Amino acid sequence: MNPLGIHALVWAGDLTPESARKVISQSKAAGFDLVELSLHAPKVMDLGMTRECLREYQLGVACSRGLSSTADVSSEDPECVARGMALLEEAVTITAALGGHYFGGVPYSALGKYNHPLTALGRKNVIHSLKRLSDFAANKGVTVGIEIVNRYETNVINTANQALALLGDVGDPKNMVIHLDTYHMNIEEVDFVQPVLACRDRLGYVHIGESNRGYLGSGTVDFTAFFNALAMIDYQGTITFESFSSAVVSEELSNTLAIWRNLWDDGMDLAKHAHAFITNKIRAAEMGKNR
To answer: What is the C-alpha separation between 24 and 207, in angstroms, rounded?
Structure first.
């Protein structure tokens, strides 16, 4: 069985000591192996306490973040790029300090809708920044995930093939992997199988999210096809459940992701449902592969 993770925003909108303990204890109680912490507002964290809490509950950790328009490594402005790199290096440092080995999200642009295509200079800056980030993360024992998000959240990469091309331009560093997310795939990809097969050798992290960001199975994502594809490539990596509702608000992230509706109120019910749903899909895919 793959390690199963859950995003912290199922439980709390920030990572203050009180919220961090809730996030970690509830994730463990719901049966998950790992929690993904969003580092969009890391200054409120108590790193030592959070790391000890992760140890107490024997829970793994991954971290993620995006960038703002004033700290965008795809910008043509070198000062803007430098601010973005500083935030990314800070996030990798925090990941390592927590005992984590995976940092993902959108480290290649601002997180939000652009009103123009990526420029040639902007792409050059992305490639240079990712090379630098890969080297920085490797020295701290951290793998960097390149999450592919939809056209309303970046103008750099929206499909698996675009992400693979970008990794190739960066030089295919060993500690940089592709991160697929079913929510974004449902918007941008032609199906849920070909992207997985295309990323066979580079897939390192997976987000499971429904088309409406709510309960799994309540929307239009073809999870059966997706999990069958994961089984076809014998994917052994982490599978993390991601869901958002206006019931849990992050000042730094909820508005960016346009989380306007209350899709659920009971995080524990949502989480247990997701754990069972994902587990059943993994087992069914394995059984189908072995017939």
So the answer is: 18
